[in-house]
Amino acid sequence: MTTAAGTPKLNRTYKWVGGLLGIVVTTVVFIVPFAFIFLTASKSGQEASLLQFSWPTEWHFVENLVEVIQARDYILVTAFINSTILTVGSVTLMVVVSALVGYVLQRRKSRWNPFINFLVLAGLIVPPAVVPTIWVMQSLGIYKTLHGLILVEVAFGMAFCVLMFRAFVATIPRELDEAAIMDGAGPLRLFFQVIFPLLRSVIVTVIVVQSVFVFNDFQNPLYFLPGDKGATVQLTVYNFLGQFNAQWNFLFMDILLITIPMLVMYIIFNRQIVAGMTSGAVKG
């Protein structure tokens, strides 16, 4: 029989074991692969081809870095510019449009709401159709264009964003809407001056999550924006992969470079992501 005095000690033991287990799992899942990428990116081509988790006999980090940046007339620089434009444009449209849709769905109930909710959920479940999407883009004249790919990313990411904003809008009292309307605010002024600033935590969550998704997207740029001029960072891995051989040191250096920006962004905004997720889940 456990005494009251022994219960706090037992709880502390569980917390200590749980924390230690969390550290071990985090190390194995995240830190070990990242260390393998860094070490392989610092080796010579012959040593990297062995794909062993070991220290390099000679460090070639700077040489590999310069070679990757200069490869194919600095295509990695072009790819970073394209990916930045793609990410900023897509996420900006997602935030504004999804916030508006989520607000209207939450505040204005109508007989169309169940059908619209079905479409939103379908956007999460139904996989995208590549060939029909290409046909539509060709008909509109936006195939193989950066702004066309931005619209594709927005369409594929809207469902998640709408659900997040709708859940968070439910936590905002309707009295704020009524007070703003009594003060003479129109619909757009009501939303952008009263409601939108209150969505800060969920906005940060959507920005970070969707930025990571769009920046790391490989499939959509491959299908809808082929060619070197529209290359994104994820497609640059093809620079060092051939049919019969691979330059593993350059490949892992390329992976390291395109991983760092989103990793830093996630670390900085990790607390805001958790706050936005839990607010929408608990109060929505």
Count of separate structural domains: 1
Radius of gyration: 24 Å
Give the full name of the CATH homologous superfamily: MetI-like
End-to-end gap: 42 Å
**CATH level 1 name:** Mainly Alpha
Indicate the mean pLDDT: 86
Instruction: Return the structural class.
Output: mainly alpha
Spans of at least 5 consecutive residues with low confidence: none
Helix and strand element order: HHHHHHHHHHHH
Number of strands: 0
How would you sum up the major sheet? none
Query: Could you tell me the strand content as a percent range?
Result: under 5%
CATH topology: MetI-like fold
Architecture (CATH level 2) name: Orthogonal Bundle
Query: What is the molecular shape?
Result: globular
Helical content stands at over 70%
**Count of separate DSSP helical elements:** 12
Summarize the structure.
The protein has 284 residues and is an all-alpha fold. The protein has helices at 6-41, 45-48, 61-107, 113-125, 130-140, 146-169, 174-182, 187-195, 200-215, 219-224, 248-268, 270-283.
Search tags:
284 residues, mainly alpha, MetI-like fold, 74% helix, globular
Description:
- The chain is mainly α.
- It has one domain: MetI-like fold (Orthogonal Bundle), CATH 1.10.3720.
- The protein has 12 helices and no strands.
- It has helices at 6-41, 45-48, 61-107, 113-125, 130-140, 146-169, 174-182, 187-195, 200-215, 219-224, 248-268, 270-283.
- α7 crosses α8 (187-195).
- It starts with 5 loop residues before the first helix and ends with a helix.
